[in-house]
Structure formats: structure tokens, C-alpha cells
Design goal:
The protein is built from twelve helices and nine strands. It is elongated and about 65 Å long. The N and C termini lie far apart (about 60 Å). The chain is about 40% helix and about 15% strand. The strands form two sheets. A seven-stranded mixed β-sheet has the order 4-3-2-5-6-9-7. It has a two-stranded antiparallel sheet with strand order 1-8. About 40% of the residues are buried. The protein has about 290 residues and is of the alpha/beta class. Strand 3, helix 4 and strand 4 form a beta-alpha-beta unit. The chain has two domains: about 200 residues, Rossmann fold, CATH 3.40.50; about 60 residues, rRNA adenine dimethylase, C-terminal domain (Helicase, Ruva Protein, domain 3). The protein binds S-adenosylmethionine. S-adenosylmethionine binds next to strand 1 and helix 3.
């Protein structure tokens, strides 16, 4: 079916005719470039055996393409004012459902079992509300293994951090929290000019593919995620200085020596595997 929602005139008219402004508090920046919408779908590699979860369908620019390419689209939209407009924009389609809820409050596994159990693969594809990018990603990754791919538009700096590699300025606790479970890849940049209204930042689309067999095995994942935040708490300090706020300094020195890591190391020099080794060492040897 023809795509027409994600066009500048269409979006401007819809907002005007419904007497609506994009709501800043919900991070509303509507995408208005058909080529970018299609590139997001291409990056997702969709087929009719795949169900997509879309976070924040807004006026349906992306949803329309997702309905064309995927088997089913389950959308979560927090803004109840947009729901009747969205349903009207998508009236040609019968393979989607919009749930008027906050994505941070849902029970994702329950909803997948309820609505998507007939689909072979479940992906998240979304132009995210940027103000909650990190809690959305870390929340879903920790709550479910049923979603095996995430194709997400977000602020460029956050995309760079998530895809950051050791020994670069972008590498931090978020790169490790995501990289622990997924292969993260930056797909393409998106200029601020293709949104209504135009945000103050540029954007990028990234793809996260969940590892089928985990690459890393932290004995206590909850502690591991806390540990990486502790390790990066102050970027300019050495690992010992950051960790000594939380653990006994002699213990940290022994831990680094026992794992053949130099005592002057900074967190950004260590790989995900190093962090897993260190955290497992703490779990085995420290009286938490
Ligand atoms: N997908 C649309 C597009 O690309 O034009 C809109 C994207 S806009 C950046 C983010 C969308 O997320 C908005 O529709 C906003 O209302 C919605 N949203 C914001 N916070 C949300 C939340 N906590 N749960 C669900 N949707 C949310």
C-alpha cells in the first residue's frame, strides 16, 4: 500500500487540523522523510513471519511501513490524544494494535505471549522518545529474551556511546551493559532537519542483535550492572580510585593482580570480558 503519512505537509496538516502541537514532555519529533523510514525498515530486515513492537508510533509515519513489511505491529503510545488520529491514519491496515501505555510500565513478556505468540521472530523497531532512551533499552534487555533484534533511532551521542569500543571516548557503562547481551552496530546518521519539530541534536539509527548464545557469563547480573556503573563513576579517575568508594582498597589491588591487570588501569581500557572476570571475582571473594 502507498506510504503517505511521513510527509512534511501531511504531518503539518494533521497537527493543524486537530489543533495539536508536538508535546516536548513526550519527546515528540515526527519523522518526515520517506527514504529514512524505508532505510529503517531495510535495516530491520522484516518479513511477514516477524512481529514488530513499535515504541511511540506518534502519527504513524513508521508504523505504516512496518505494517506493510511485517506480519503484525504492536505499538505502545503514551499520548492518548494521538490514538484516534493514529487509528484514522492507519485505517487501511488491520495488522496492528495500539496500546495506550507507558512503555516503561508494561509487562513485556505477558504482552508478547498474549499478542505475538504466533510469530517466529519479534523485533523492536522505533524512533525512540529520546528522554528515556537508556531506561527503555536497558529495561527491555533485562526483562526479556524473546525480542531478538532492536532497530532504534536515538540521539547521535547516545548511539555512539552504545556502539563505543574499548579505549575510545565513547566507551562507557552503557556500551558494556548493551554489549554484554547484544552485538551493537551503528547503521546510519539522521540529520535534525527531517523532523517536525526539528530537535536540537542529530540522530542515528543503531541495530542491536541479541546473542543467540550468551558471549559472557556474569554469575550475578544485577551486581555486574551495578559494578560497571561503579567502575565508570568518574571517568578521569583510575579504576582503583573509582572502586575504592565501594570496596576495600587492598582487596581491589589483589583482585587486579590476580587477574593480571595493571593497577593504574582506567575503566575504559578494559574489555567486557575483563569486567565479567572482575565482577565474578568479587562475587566469589568479597563479602558483599
Ligand atoms: N514514531 C513517530 C515518528 O517517527 O514520527 C514518533 C516518534 S517521537 C520521537 C516519540 C513517540 O514516543 C511520541 O509519539 C511520544 O508520544 C511517544 N512516547 C513518549 N514517551 C513514551 C512512553 N513512555 N511510552 C510510550 N510512548 C512514548
Amino acid at each position: 500500500m502507498s506510504a503517505n503519512i511521513g510527509n512534511q505537509n501531511f504531518i503539518n496538516n494533521i497537527l493543524k487540523n486537530n489543533n495539536l502541537d508536538a508535546k516536548k514532555k513526550f519527546g515528540q519529533n515526527f519523522l518526515t522523510d520517506q527514504n529514512i523510514l524505508l532505510s529503517i525498515c531495510d535495516a530491520s530486515e522484516l518479513d511477514k513471519e516477524t512481529a514488530v513492537i513499535e515504541i511511540g508510533p506518534g502519527l504513524g509515519s513508521l508504523t505504516e511501513h512496518l505494517c506493510n513489511k511485517a506480519g503484525f505491529v504492536l505499538c505502545y503510545e503514551i499520548d492518548k490524544d494521538l490514538i484516534p488520529i493514529l487509528n484514522d491514519n492507519l485505517k487501511e491496515y488491520n495488522n496492528y494494535l495500539v496500546i495506550n501505555e507507558d512503555i516503561l510500565d508494561i509487562d513485556i513478556n505477558e504482552d508478547i505471549n498474549k499478542y505475538l505468540k504466533d510469530y517466529k521472530k519479534i523485533y523492536v523497531v522505533a524512533n525512540l522518545p529520546y528522554y528515556i532512551t537508556t531506561p527503555i533499552i536497558l529495561g527491555l534487555l533485562s526483562k526479556t529474551k524473546l525480542i531478538t533484534r532492536y532497530v532504534l533511532m536515538m540521539q547521535l551521542e547516545v548511539a555512539d556511546r552504545i556502539c563505543g569500543k574499548p579505549k575510545t571516548k565513547d566507551y562507557n557503562a552503557l556500551s558494556i551493559a548493551v554489549g554484554y547481551r547484544c552485538n551493537a552496530k551503528k547503521m546510519f546518521k539522521v540529520p535534525r532537519t527531517v523532523f517536525i519539530p526539528s530537535p536540537n541534536v542529530d540522530s542515528a539509527v543503531i541495530r542491536l542483535d541479541l546473542y543467540e548464545n550468551p558471549l559472557y557469563n556474569a554469575i550475578n547480573e544485577e551486581h555486574f550492572f551495578k559494578f560497571i556503573r561503579e567502575a565508570f563513576s568518574q571517568r578521569r579517575k583510575t579504576l582503583i580510585n573509582n572502586l575504592s568508594t565501594y570496596y576495600n582498597k587492598e582487596f581491589i589491588l589483589k583482585m587486579l593482580n590476580d587477574n593480571n591487570i595493571k593497577t593504574t588501569v582506567r575503566a575504559e581500557e578494559l574489555s567486557i570480558n575483563d569486567f565479567v572476570l572482575l565482577d565474578n571475582y568479587i562475587i566469589h571473594n568479597y563479602n558483599l
